[in-house]
Amino acid sequence: MALKQISSNKCFGGLQKVFEHDSVELKCKMKFAIYLPPKAETGKCPALYWLSGLTCTEQNFISKSGYHQAASEHGLVVIAPDTSPRGCNIKGEDETWDFGTGAGFYVDATEDPWKTNYRMYSYVTEELPQLINTNFPVDPQKMSIFGHSMGGHGALICALKNPGKYKSVSAFAPICNPVLCPWGKKAFSGYLGTDQSKWEAYDATHLVKACPGTQLDILIDQGKDDQFLSDGQLLPDNFIAACTEKKIPVVFRLQEGYDHSYYFIATFITNHIRHHAKYLNA
Fold first, then answer.
1. Strand, coil or helix: what is 155?
2. What's the domain range around 157?
3. Which GO terms describe its biological process (predicted)?
4. Where are the beta strands (DSSP E) in the chain?
5. 250 and which of 65, 96, 187, 243 could share a cystine (Cβ 3.0–4.6 Å)?
6. Distance between CA atoms of 157 and 58, rounded to whole angstroms?
7. How far apart are CA 282 and CA 272, in angstroms?
8. Total structural domains within the chain
9. Which residue out of 23, 84, 144, 149 is catalytically annotated?
């Protein structure tokens, strides 16, 4: 599959690149960002996937999080895809900020008119890794995933739905129980229809409850002053309770004074990179 390089910038000895390609799953042109650390010049490196939140593109994480130095030091290739298909000309996809463009919610839609293009789950878990494994110096056996908000939800469900695929998972302020929050109800009813049993397949809290057990060591950071936490959009307590019941190890850190922004992410990103490096470089 042909890749078109959009940009390339040297950063901490490595290269931050952005590529465009024609997606088979999403049936549109998609961009993704990829950081190649200095170690990638001489051998294969582990791959760490980042999933961004509502309204984001591949640019937000690479320009605001400050992850490059830690990724360079630990020798990790970091991939950040876009958050939805683009330019599909579906009626209604640009009407609101929390549904449609920039709000793919990392599900495979089953409802018209979304089901043809809005297949972000399959894109992130299958098509994109195959593309990366074919075109870049990564070790296909060493892959982890993390994300923020809607992307934190995405990271958790990708890891929980695919035992053994990812070595580790972490999240910043993830949407933990989308079947019960306004964002999730809106997205899932639109993409998946009114049968709420179908929603549970993309809900981290429900996936944990149905989980036979996992080796995943889950790390979550949540800002205590996050407006979406107090608004009931994130519901981490439900996820923590489910993990506790299933004896699934999860480290949940409520960070005093922090909100939902990239200032919060930038503060703790090195800690998350280190968390993943522990498993990816083992």
1. helix
2. 4-281
3. formaldehyde catabolic process
4. 4-11, 14-23, 28-36, 45-51, 77-81, 138-148, 169-172, 218-223, 250-255
5. 243
6. 20
7. 16
8. 1
9. 149
Name the active-site residue from 226, 272, 275, 276: 226
For residue 210, what pLDDT is reported?
87
Active site residue 63: no
- CATH number for 256: 3.40.50.1820
Does 260 participate in catalysis according to the annotation? yes
Give catalytic status of residue 144 as yes or no. Answer: no
pLDDT, average across residues 210-229: 90
Residues 12-49 pLDDT 10s: 999 999 999 999 999 999 999 999 999 999 999 999 99
Q: Is pLDDT of 268 > 90?
A: yes
- pLDDT at res. 39: 98
155: which residues sit within 8 A by CB, 6+ positions away?
49, 51, 145, 146, 147, 169, 170, 171, 174
Q: Which of 260, 272, 275, 276 is catalytic?
A: 260
Q: How confident is the model over 113-157, as pLDDT tens digits?
A: 999 999 999 999 999 999 999 999 999 999 999 999 999 999 999
pTM above 0.90, yes or no: yes
> What distance in Å separates the CA atoms of residue 181 and residue 178, rounded to the nearest whole number?
5
Give 36's strand partners. Answer: 15
Which residues have C-beta within 8 Å of that of residue 239, sequence separation ≥ 6? 156, 174, 176, 177, 204, 205, 208, 220, 250
